[in-house]
Amino acid sequence: MNSVTTEIGGDRATAADAAPAALRDVMARFATGVTVLSTGGDHLHGMTANAFTSVSLDPPSVLCCVGHSAVMHEAITAAGHFGVSIMEAAQEDVVRFFADKKRPLGPAQFAQIEWAPGPRTGAPLLTGALAWLECDLSAAHSFGDHSIFVGQVVEARLGSGQDGLLFYDGAFQRAVARSA
Q1: CA nearest 63: which of 152, 155, 154?
Q2: How far apart are CA 90 and CA 131, in angstroms?
Q3: Alpha-carbon distance 137 to 94, whole Å?
Q4: How many CB atoms sit inside 10 A of residue 25's CB?
Q5: Over the range 43-55, which residues count as b (16 or more CB within 10 Å of their CB) and which as e?
Q6: Sign for the pseudo-dihedral over CA of 70, 73, 78, 81
Q7: Separation of alpha carbons 66 and 148, rounded Å
Q8: Which of 51, 56, 108, 123 is the right S-S partner for 104, CB 3.0 to 4.6 Å?
């Protein structure tokens, strides 16, 4: 079997190099926004996620990718909806908390966090975020070790924050808002 070889910028790469570690290294060079996904009700849970993007304006839809082994995977599947808090640069501590697999689960994980239930889904929306979305789950596609959850936006609101939180090259960064 022949391997496809390319040369880009003087470096040689082969299709065989696209192993998980190589993909992780390459994707570290792609800056992403940082969100906290949440579900409410009987499935109260939160999780930091940067695999998130808009899908469509008509109907208004977004997607998030969640690992099959994550508690959030079952929470979104069972709840049938999810909330999204788009995080402000000053909220790195909150993002780290929801990324910590050792944090308490269920209602206890929200005990020290300021939040309000979303008016449409009841999903916790984190105070101080740049913006919030509430979504009804409209599709789920299993691929590899993750599911791609597509949510139809049923509520969208802006916060008063300015600077966004980014994840780039394995570290959190600040995206500075343009001056008005």
Answers
A1: 152
A2: 14
A3: 25
A4: 13
A5: bbbbbbbbebeeb
A6: positive
A7: 7
A8: 108
Place of tokens 């802006």: 158
Residue type for position 75: A
**Whole-angstrom distance, CA of residue 33 vs CA of residue 95:** 11
pLDDT digits (tens, 9 = 90+) for 52-81: 999 999 999 999 999 999 999 999 999 999
Sign of CA dihedral 109, 111, 114, 115: positive
Break the chain into its structural domains and give their ranges. Answer: 32-175
Of the candidates 63, 48, 28, the residue with the CA atom closest to the CA atom of residue 150: 63
In this prediction the pTM is 0.87
Q: Which residue has the tokens 């695999």?
A: 51
What pLDDT, in 10s, does the model give residues 159-174?
998 999 999 999 999 9
**Rounded distance between C-alpha atoms, residue 25 and residue 11, angstroms:** 15
Question: What string of H, E and C letters represents the secondary structure of the chain?
Answer: CCCCEEEECCEEEEHHHCCHHHHHHHHCCCCEECEEEEECHHHCEEEEECCEEEEEECCEEEEEEEECCCHHHHHHHHHCEEEEEECEHHHHHHHHHHHCCCCCCHHHHHCCCCEEECCCCCCEEECCCCEEEEEEEEEEEEECCEEEEEEEEEEEEECCCCCEEEEECCEEEEECCCCC
Q: Express each pLDDT in 78-105 by its tens digit.
A: 999 999 999 999 999 999 999 999 999 9
